[in-house]
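The aim of this short unit is practical: by the end, you should be able to scan a pair of folded records and say something sensible about each. We start with the first protein, listed as its amino acid sequence and then its structure tokens.
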Amino acid sequence: MTLQSRGHLLTEQANPASQTLDHLTPLQLVDLFNQEDAKTIAAIAAARESLAAAITITADALRHGGRLFYIGAGTSGRLGVLDAAECPPTFCTPPDLVQGIIAGGAGALLRSSEGLEDQADDGASAIAHHHVTQLDVVVGITAGGTTPYVHGALHAARQRGAKTIFIACVPAAQVAVEADVDIRLLVGPEILAGSTRLKAGTVTKLALNILSTGTMVQLGKVYGNRMVDVAVTNSKLHDRALRILQDLTDLSREDAGFLLEQSGRRVKLALLMHWTGLDAEAGDRLLSEHQGNLRQAVEAAGPTVNR
């Protein structure tokens, strides 16, 4: 698609509500942003079924040894990298399980490299470089829907048999795509025409939050609404781990700390040990038998005196 043909895209249109943007007071600016940002919540609600389908596909792939890749350029790429980077500390996932790929590589996280988004071959090369297979899921993120880098990557991923998910902020009627799940987040024109780091960026971040967290919930990475697979890597997370143990058991903070150390600082294992009386080695085996799902492991252990 040529640059001249993009003016019809929803993300490129002028917003009637902000035609006097340069005349607004700071308070009026804040009110306008708030009014427009409310549309991101409605857009997520409208895409609920496709987001649920994306969670189902991704969880199934990861459950069977696959990986999740986000790929994009500019703001879209940065958002994917951010979501991927937050999975290891939140869910104790290995760094290669969820990966973010951005046009221009790591340097594009700090410096604008938007010119690289026009190379479809580079997107295909990125898929080859990461050895994407039929086990994996590739999420192409492009606010305006037209980014050649993303389309090249999705095409290459489909050729390799991977599942594909497309996330864009324009209607399918404006930009068609072949993907297993097609997520359209329609927030309308930006306050600053064409600046998709605004509403489009916000709604994309919301969607990625839902996709990654929903997937990890399906994989048993949480218990109730607790982050039981948290990586205890600093004082804040150590405190969180102790509070989770105290909240879900009758232990004092001191005893919770002792149990946490016995488990190798693994909250999930610590809870299983407490509730079942198993030692760390036996508890670890039981968790492995249930693919790390704490609730399933506890139920398999049967009635216990500690829970």
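Turning to the second protein, read its sequence before its tokens, just as you did above.
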Amino acid sequence: MIEPLRKHRKDGRLYERRAETTAMLMQLEGLAFDQLVERAKIRSKTDPLYLPTECLLHFVRRSKRDNSDRSFEILFRILLARVENAATLHSTMHRLEYGEIAITAFGSKVKNDVVDRFLARLVSDRDGYDERLDYFEVNFSHAIASLRSTAKLKAAEEEKRSQPLSSDDDEEISAEVEKAAGSFDPFDKSKIDDGNYRFRLFAVIKELPDKERHVVALLFKEYPIESNDPDKPSICKILGCVEKTVRNRRDRAFEKLRTALSEEEIDA
């Protein structure tokens, strides 16, 4: 029997696996364990016998119910390899002189953070039931993408703190950043209606520095940056900042959002 997920959406409905995932799980239940393992080892997604990671995770979690440490250990190693691969930013990988593949320090930080946070959820699930894993059974790629977005912002902030800081909010930003940010609209109507896009966007916004996040949140609510109407609230009035400061915070935030979301499209 395929147990339903337990996590609730904001409207009270339970999360549900995709129909194709549920159908495959029902077929896989009849397989001998060794056959399941062989399916799980297939790495090519184009192979008709490829086992989606949503299904693999389900059987890893279910091994607790089956009280089988052996099943868990075997399937866990395969799952961990997939998580590590999904956590790796391919843009941070490069080939060394002798053909070996290396990853930058930034990429290592991101990968380790994603893996650590996933493992923390899995350990918690083994001890009881961690609802945070439920979405991974619904859409593994986007769940990992969310962890990657957070990890990239965290790693970037750590690098920023290790460099000389600028405390002037009104400091001129580079023309390149201003141009890139100005041509990017994170709240584009053609994208914002996509649930997956909103999920990734809000995950990245959540990790922005407070000052930048406040500006983005007000822009999302369609407050104008400045207003000549004394009775009309503006971002400048709400935050007590001059227009230049608000625009600088917006441009810095938009550039971070643009970079994070464009990388998600490449790495997903």
